[in-house]
Specification:
Rossmann fold, four-stranded parallel sheet, carbohydrate derivative binding, GlmS/FrlB_SIS, isomerase
């Protein structure tokens, strides 16, 4: 079993622990009414997109998401939350340094022995969700679970659905597809982007991701026999039929959307195996991006 496989199968237990920890982390996490930005890089950026949409949609306050390198320093926020598994990513540390003393910051990290521990004002440490793999799985979903639980939006069914996602066979013929498109709406757009990234990182697969309503404005043109379109969350009316009419495979998101992401992680590992690739050694990637000064 690869590190990625081992780590992705532990997600139900990690989510349970994160949900229980949310109350103890309340002081470090955004309070209702605060104007908040959530930042990250790569996978963490997509989790930031999902968390921001959930928080603002819940009426907790204006919430934006940015890649750490693209943070708009001309805007004022009450708090900036940084998601960083490694605690060493250059862009995140640079941003926290620039905000020090001006804007309150919180870091959600997996490693309590890294520079982010002193770079941020407040901390939420999910060391039980740390990973050996380059490709993120459980830390990302566990950090999002912590934020969902903090907002009172973590359903008990999510853990049960994650266990189903780990045991239920993938749809027949899916692994053999040549192209994959992941779709989301609202907070699940970030999950769709992350699913596409997992396919590219682990399996070197042609994978795209879009807001579901935007899919018909051009991207559906690549859909045909031998491609798959996967909806994370409820699909817009009529979209499934349109995809099927192209000859493409339609995958309906029946589980909690975060559990659907677990299914997509499994798909990435399965496609990698079918192509003779090792998902623990993705091409051109390292566990943390540390830029030379």
């Amino acid at each position: 079993m690869t590190h990625v496989e081992d780590e992705l199968t532990s997600q139900p237990e990690c989510w349970t622990r994160a949900a229980a920890q949310a109350g103890r982390c309340a002081e470090a996490l955004p309070a209702p009414g605060e104007r908040v930005a959530i930042v990250g890089c790569g996978t963490s950026y997509f989790m930031a997109q999902a968390a921001a949409a959930l928080r603002e949609g819940a009426g907790q306050g204006e919430t934006d998401a940015f890649a750490a390198s693209e943070f708009p320093h001309g805007r004022a926020y009450d708090r900036v939350v940084a998601l960083t598994r490694s605690g060493t990513t250059t862009e995140v540390l640079d941003l926290l340094g620039r905000l020090k003393g001006r804007t309150r910051t919180t870091a959600i990290t997996a490693d309590p022995h890294t520079p982010v521990m002193t770079a941020a004002d407040d901390l939420a440490v999910l060391d039980f969700a740390d990973e050996r793999s380059v490709v993120q799985t459980r830390f990302a979903t566990t950090a999002l679970t912590l934020l969902r639980a903090h907002l009172g939006l973590h359903p008990h069914t999510a853990v049960t659905d994650a266990r189903t996602a780990l045991t239920e066979p993938l749809p027949e013929g899916l692994v053999e597809c040549a192209q994959f498109t992941f779709l989301g709406r609202g907070w699940t757009v970030g999950l769709a982007h992350e699913a596409g990234l997992k396919m590219r990182e682990a399996a070197l697969a042609w994978a795209e991701s879009y807001p579901a309503m935007e899919y018909r404005h051009g991207p559906i043109s690549v859909t045909t026999s031998g491609t798959a379109t996967w909806m994370l969350g409820a699909a817009p009316e009529g979209l499934a039929g349109q995809v099927r009419s192209t000859g493409g495979m339609w995958i309906e998101g029946r589980l909690d959307p975060l559990a659907e992401l677990v299914r997509a992680q499994r798909l990435a590992v399965a496609v990698a195996a079918s192509r003779g690739l090792d998902p623990d050694t993705p091409r051109h990637l390292t566990r943390s991006v540390i830029l030379a000064p």
